[in-house]
Design goal:
Layout (H helix, E strand, L loop, with lengths): L28 H6 L5 H8 L1 H6 L4 H13 L7 E7 L6 E3 L8 H7 L6 E6 L2 E2 L5 E2 L2 E6 L6 H18 L3 E5 L8 H7 L2
Parallel strand pairs: 6-7
Antiparallel strand pairs: 1-2, 1-3, 3-6, 4-5
Length: 189
């Protein structure tokens, strides 16, 4: 095949809507539908599929997560709940039905050698005088816990974050770190 004298070998390829060399972009609804997805949300769920296949939430737990998030946005006092992962079933669930409104009693409930996820809504007044109620997840990972359990919780951290819809994660490695939680929250508010 002979080439035309007008052809330039260094010319960039023309991009057409069907071209796979186009710049990366989010998948369109029609593309997702052709691929068997029903929405962008189900596509993003597929991305987290390895986490969601491994770890589970009961319907009761997801309902509690939602109620806690919605119910604490206007709270006058700090509110916290503690979650754990069942090592046998890999279900993420509340440790108990208690809602802690005192940071010291929360610290007393955290085990010395086992990680936990703590959802915390903490009303505070910023230096500007504005009231803020950050909703965060404390990723409690004591340095004394074994590697297997650390890996278990590390694998579930982002799934817990997304399911609980917290604003951010604060990592702590001892119950004493809770004494400075207000300062940590003010740093990022």
């Amino acid at each position: 095949m002979t080439s035309s004298p007008r052809a330039t070998p260094l010319a960039p390829p023309r991009r057409t809507p069907q071209s796979s060399s186009a710049l990366p972009h989010p998948p369109s609804s029609s593309h997702l539908h052709r691929e068997g997805y029903h929405s962008v949300r189900s596509f993003s769920c597929e991305i987290m599929s390895s986490e969601s296949r491994l770890y589970t939430f009961s319907n009761e737990t997801t309902t509690k997560l939602r109620k806690f998030r919605l119910g604490t946005s206007r709270a006058k006092d700090p509110q916290a709940v503690i979650y754990e992962i069942d090592k046998k079933t890999l279900e993420i669930r509340p440790v108990d039905d208690d809602v802690y409104s005192d940071i010291q009693s929360l610290a007393d409930e955290l085990p010395e050698h086992a990680p936990r996820f703590v959802l915390l809504s903490y009303p505070l007044t910023l230096d500007s005088g504005r009231l803020s109620v950050p909703y965060v997840m404390l990723y409690y990972l004591p340095i004394t816990c074994n590697s297997e359990v650390k890996m278990l919780y590390a694998g579930a951290k982002e799934l817990m974050r997304n399911t609980s819809e917290v604003g951010r994660i604060i990592e702590i490695d001892s119950a004493e770190d809770l004494e400075e939680i207000e300062d940590k929250l003010k740093e990022h508010s």
